[in-house]
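Dear H.,

Thanks for agreeing to be a second pair of eyes. The structure we're designing against is below in token form, covering all 354 positions.
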């Protein structure tokens, strides 16, 4: 080393704290440059412990419009490249979620077949169950929690099946432009059971399976209904209240935060963020875009306001990078939504059973 001082100088600058001044991250791409752990390794001894696990769900054959969300996980990771865990102090909260009690890792993507939805969703359920059943790094909170990078919205169903094992039935805070509680007969047409399991019916199915409490709520809804009355009646029966997109204009972000907290008070909560809750101006790269949505800033303000809620799992879904622009607008937004979900999970630890 002594004879090659330029290499020594390079090595000295290679601390993780300096990468952002050095030109960018190095090594393989993970969410927010977090450590990659082979969470699905067959031997438990080989797996580093973690408290919060990021996992990708490359599945998009439950979508009713534009496919492409199978490439969402790596799109979101690409959008997160600027986040350096050691230098992620929030201007708003004064905290750095990466440097508190929780060890946060990226498990890579779930191994899913592209050719059979039924099998792929079983594979995803198994992936969730394996990752959430390993003993956490912090023994005070033995059940680790998962944030999923979708994938179309069908991928939330396996996540809810897995959180049920450790935390029981949950309230779902569902950010979306669509209600996604559609009766499979309505969305799927009653053609086959297979066709009825899709990104617009998964909340109906989760309700039927007893995974969702009657204290759930949608936020940002604006897409048209298929039936004048039945869809909303059915939505209520599935356990949901609705905050529409335009309600934000009337009650503001704090009004939305208050409603979400009031509705889910005293329950454990799963937060699912369909990126189409944002206006296509802020998230063009999605399967079923709807105009008239929220801005990225409004969504982040609302998410960061949900402190104190016991978040047992979460996801960002429907990011379809092929429709993104050269500035990666959608992927940047989705990466920051994940960052907010991490903040909530670290801010309020939750005791689950292994
Ligand atoms: Mn959705």
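And this is the sequence the design step returned. I haven't edited it by hand at all.
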């Amino acid at each position: 080393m002594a004879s090659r001082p330029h290499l020594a100088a390079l090595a000295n600058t290679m601390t993780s704290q300096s990468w952002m001044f050095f030109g960018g991250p190095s090594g393989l791409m993970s969410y927010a440059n977090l450590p990659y752990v082979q969470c699905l390794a067959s031997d438990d001894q080989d797996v580093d412990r973690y408290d919060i696990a990021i996992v990708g769900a490359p599945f998009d054959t439950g979508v009713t419009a534009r496919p492409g969300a199978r490439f969402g996980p790596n799109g979101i990771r690409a959008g997160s490249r600027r986040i350096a865990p050691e230098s992620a102090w929030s201007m708003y909260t004064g905290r750095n979620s990466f440097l508190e009690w929780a060890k946060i890792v990226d498990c890579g993507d779930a191994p899913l077949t592209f050719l059979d939805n039924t099998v792929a969703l079983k594979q995803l359920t198994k992936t969730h169950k394996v990752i959430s059943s390993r003993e956490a790094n912090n023994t005070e909170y033995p059940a680790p929690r998962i944030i999923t990078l979708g994938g179309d919205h069908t991928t939330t169903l396996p996540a809810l099946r897995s959180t049920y094992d450790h935390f029981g039935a949950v309230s779902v805070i569902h950010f979306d432009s669509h209600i996604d509680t559609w009766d499979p007969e309505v969305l799927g047409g009653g053609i086959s059971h297979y066709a009825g399991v899709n990104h617009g019916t998964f909340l109906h199915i989760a309700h039927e399976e007893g995974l969702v409490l009657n204290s759930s709520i949608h936020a940002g809804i604006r897409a048209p209904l298929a039936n004048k009355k039945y869809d909303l009646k059915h939505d209520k029966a599935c356990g949901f209240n609705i905050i529409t997109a335009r309600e934000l204009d009337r009650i503001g972000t704090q009004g939305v935060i208050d409603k979400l907290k009031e509705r889910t008070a005293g329950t454990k909560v799963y937060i699912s963020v369909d990126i189409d809750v944002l206006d296509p101006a802020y998230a063009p790269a999605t399967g079923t875009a709807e105009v008239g949505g929220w801005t990225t800033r409004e969504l982040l303000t609302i998410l960061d306001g949900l402190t104190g809620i016991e978040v047992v799992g979460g996801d960002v879904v429907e990011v379809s990078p092929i429709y993104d622009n050269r500035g990666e607008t959608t992927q940047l937004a989705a990466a920051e939504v994940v960052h907010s979900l991490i903040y909530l999970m670290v801010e309020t630890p939750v005791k689950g059973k292994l």
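Two observations from my side: The first helix runs from residue 5 to 13. Residues 153, 176, 178, 180, 199, 274, 318 surround manganese (II) ion (CB under 6 Å).

Warmly,
E.
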